[in-house]
Amino acid sequence: MPNIAVTTWSLEQTAPTDLLPAQAPEGDVRIVRSEVPSPEFSRFLYASVGGDILWVDRLRWTYAQWQAHLERPGVETWVAYDRGTPAGYVELSPQDDGVVEIEYFGLIPAFRGRRIGGHLLSYGAARAWDLAERWPGLAQTKRVWLHTCSKDGEHAMDNYLRRGFKLFDTKVEEEAVVATPGPWSGAYPG
């Protein structure tokens, strides 16, 4: 199987004032925290958002692995809804010493290009900064970080930079080419 070079960029904010929020999109777009750990719902979001951009790591997870991850203190899933339909999500994952990773962020393909992504990222980053307010025992957030790669959507990096994230690391690695899984077989050409 052939390999491709994949560039991964790591970006961060080191103060809440780094966040440059996007305007809310027009229409009935709401962002709601998914407070009940639901492996089914989280797997749906992961597969639906990442199916065309080769998010495959968690597709191998068992139900128990999903449940254990979602029940970790401070892990939060915030879901954007467009007129009641899930449009995308952001997953926050606390780490040591007041660091919060935006572990996953993205939109279901049908909702891209509608100005929802900037709003969702702004909201998710703000929730990363105030995570300790909702989770007693967690350290106050001192740093919010994420990574994106050359397989992600063409506007991902621009969105992160426009929201005030700063680049702090770049890596290039060879990866095996895999078929685009989609949320189910044949969902996306490729």
Automatic annotation (TrEMBL):
The keyword Transferase applies. Residues 29-190 form the N-acetyltransferase domain. PROSITE patterns: GNAT (PS51186). GO terms for molecular function: acyltransferase activity, transferring groups other than amino-acyl groups. It comes from the Bacteria. CDD domains: NAT_SF. It holds the Pfam family Acetyltransf_1. Keywords: Transferase. This is Acetyltransferase. It comes from Streptomyces caeruleatus. The keyword Transferase applies.
